[in-house]
Amino acid sequence: MNALQSVPLNHYILLSAMLFAIGVIGVLVRRNAIIIFMCIELMLNAVNLLMVAFSAHHGDGSGQVFVFFIMAVAAAEVAVGLAILIMIHRNSKTTDIDFLNKLKF
Amino acid sequence: MKELVWLVPLFPLIGFLIIGLFKNNFSKKLAGTIASGAILASFTVSLGIFIELLSGAEKTFTYTLFDWITSGDFSVAIAFLVDPLSSIMLLIITGVGFLIHLYSIGYMHDDEGYAKFFSYLNLFVFFMLLLVLGNNYLLMFAGWEGVGLASYLLIGFWFKNQSYNDAAKKAFIVNRIGDLGFVLGIILIFITFGSINYADVFGSAMSHPSNEPVIVLITLLLFVGAMGKSAQIPLYTWLPDAMAGPTPVSALIHAATMVTAGVYMIARSNVLYSLSPTTLTIVAIVGAVTAVFAATIGILQNDIKKVLAYSTVSQLGYMFLAMGVGAFTGGIFHLATHAFFKALLFLGAGSVIHAMGGEQDIRKMGGLKKYLPITYMTFLIGTIAISGIPPFSGFFSKDEILAHAFAANPLLWILGIAGSIMTAFYMFRLFYLTFSGTFRGTEHQKHHLHESPSTMTIPLIVLAVLAALAGFIGVPEVLGGSHLLEHFLDPVFEDSKLILFTNHLSHSTEYMLMGTAVGILILVILFARNKYFTNNEIPKSDEDKKSVFANLVYNKYYVDEIYDAIIVKPLDFLSGVFFKFFELKGIDSIVNSTGKLVIGLSDTFRRLQTGHVGFYIFMMVISIVAILFFNLI
């Protein structure tokens, strides 16, 4: 039994729920696209944390394998998302999403 | 040779496809040659079949190509029936058809639609052959509609003239009325007999009693079809208008072949008609009245083709009169001789029109004898033949019909004689006005007058020989002949002879009838000669005042106007009402309000698309929460 496994499961659940809620609120209230982006990453990592915790709790490694997949996909997503943000910034000199309102009928 | 019967319709079909598909790559000469060659090939096969039937013992032969429609009890094959009746029709269609193709090469030589014309002609011949060769009513109907289509295309061949288009539409629409009767007749045949093959239908019909209502109804419905196609009262009005087409078309389709389809149909269904004396009486009356009625109109017409058109309607009336009095052989005999002399007359008229540079009014002709010697001679033969002067063909066929009519009812004979008197009068009137006297056209036309090229005169000469001599295939016994045609056609009509009772005339009565008819005809011709040859009378121009009766006849009894007033106008009015109320107010408003509803709703909902990314994200989160919430419940 190492130190991590002595932490009860409830704590992990609470922590990741808080992280996820922070992420959601950040996405909803912030106007800077980069911050929103980081908040999305925060939500992803909240899920990752929960997944690892359950995996350890049940003694089943497949949850951790999923986490690796999510991290790999998130890395790719970050690359694409940042590239888009850079292009937006080059064209409109801003990353404030309130100015990005051309997407309508 | 009988096994090769499928080749007969195949040649014109191939000709049509080749010319129709590649007409832009063809020289004129090639298109004409292919078309005529195809018909000549069909004629050769038909002749072979005819000779084989003449000598062989087997008189009926069916060649099945493949199954066409099979559905439950209903099965129809593409099968060709070779028997004496269809082989005679084959000879007429391909023989006269070939001559008219040949003629068209000369007649149409500077028309821009030359290749198109020949492809249509071949298409027509194909459908006509299908019509007479089919061994069931459906195949006959397919050919029936096909020839209607070809007729429509060819009447409106010069489609840049709106009145020609109207004539084409009129022909098509009037025929539609008849076709409805035909279709209903076929359906009723299937319901009654469980089959539409001739052999099955006639076989099972033989066991039905005479004048059974359902058979009377079937034959009446079929006769409605025949009325339309063969231009009988009351559906005859399209035929005179159909003269808008090029003259070879009038000769082939609207004189020699297509319009006789109705006669062929009744002759083919002779067993059904013999079982229904009521219908036969109606057929005879309609035929006799048409013969007289159309002839009276013909007397005062001044358009060379219109005279011949009314003459065709009248002669078709004779054929129906023959059918109606049970003289099926006589009707087919007259069909054959009429095909020869009427095709000859139309082609002769075409030759005249060609020489006159398109002029069709006989008041502006005259004296063409010395400019068009071959046309003159052949036209004279045709005129004598149609008038019924012995020994030309028209005499024998018409005499046979009149003798049978007399045996059935002397009143029909009187109508027949009246019609034939008028026929002789208007034909000789036409003949003298066109060919004798002095030329009444313009100087320019006179300068241009010329005999037609040999491709046109050769068919005239061949048809003249046929028109003169064809009568000898049916010389009646009373004149010392043996009526070859009747013996040949016997297998087709033998069942009817068992059912139908016909009076036989004594030889002395027949001599008397013949003598009376010929005597009156000669007097009439002398009268016409005196009026239009000796006294050089010219019909009055349109502006001159005429007597009330002459005006009535000249305007064709205003039948077109009457139909217009009692059928076309009310229909037009009714369509207008339906258009204004049901179409505009009903259907249109339903469709339009559906559209308006969609536009209104989308105009409301489009406001959700604000374009603000923050709002979208907010909605996304809300939606995900909602989905999770509902899933967890």
**In terms of per-residue confidence, which ranges of chain B show pLDDT below 50 for 5 or more consecutive residues?**
none
Largest sheet of chain A: none
Rounded mean pLDDT of chain B is 89
**Quaternary state, please?**
heterodimer
Tally of strands of chain B: 2
Please give the largest β-sheet of chain B.
2 strands, antiparallel
Q: Count the helices of chain B. How many?
A: 25
H-E string of chain A: HHHH
Q: Kindly report how far apart the N and C termini of chain B lie.
A: 86 Å
Question: Largest interface: which pair?
Answer: A-B, 14 and 10 residues
Which helices and strands occur, and which strands form pairs?
The complex is a heterodimer of chains A (105) and B (633).
Chain A: H1 3-6, H2 9-29, H3 33-58, H4 62-92
Chain B: H1 7-22, H2 28-55, E1 61-71, E2 74-82, H3 84-107, H4 114-133, H5 137-155, H6 162-193, H7 198-205, H8 213-229, H9 238-241, H10 247-256, H11 261-268, H12 270-274, H13 277-300, H14 304-324, H15 328-355, H16 373-387, H17 393-408, H18 410-435, H19 443-448, H20 454-469, H21 484-499, H22 507-534, H23 548-554, H24 559-605, H25 613-632
Antiparallel strand pairs in B: 1-2
Helix pairs in contact in B: 1-2, 1-4, 2-3, 2-4, 3-4, 3-10, 3-15, 3-20, 4-5, 5-6, 5-10, 6-8, 8-11, 8-13, 10-15, 13-14, 13-18, 14-15, 14-17, 14-18, 15-16, 15-17, 15-20, 15-21, 16-18, 16-20, 17-18, 18-22
